[in-house]
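In this notation, each integer encodes one residue's backbone shape. One such record reads:

___
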Amino acid sequence: MVTIYPVKDIRFRISVVGRGATSGGAFMDVVGMESFSITFDNGVDEWNPLDSRGWVRRMVTSKSMTVSLAGKRVTHCFGNDYVAGLAYQSGQGAATILLVEFPNGDELSMPCIVNVTACGGGNGDEVAVLEFDCLSDGLPRYTRWDGGNPVAAAAAMDLGGEADVSN
């Protein structure tokens, strides 16, 4: 079955206790976001074997993911306040977990480093901005759901709902 849904129905939640999150109560909504993107960066190794007659061979050897969000600074929203506060953190202080919940029940859980790129600026007649990138820091997990039942995310994956995106 093909699932089509509007972007506005995607939910973003962030662990407000950093990487120590073990339950849903540690995750808060990041509200006020107007746009987002998910991008991938692949490390590609290439070589020129003699038997390829000059044609380059390539293999993806590493991956990273970035979830970029841009919106408004909403005070007294735990998730939004937490992200805004990360603008002043460094090292492990900027490490947390991002959850992206899709309308069809799929979920992306990504350990990440939060890079706040804009917080609080704008013109006098505008609402202050909050823009940030969540940069993957380790192996993310993608869970597919079909009507509340976990399903395989790839043909080679066992039933159980989690996809190992390491390969």
Q: What stands out?
A: Confidence is low (pLDDT under 50) at residues 151-164.
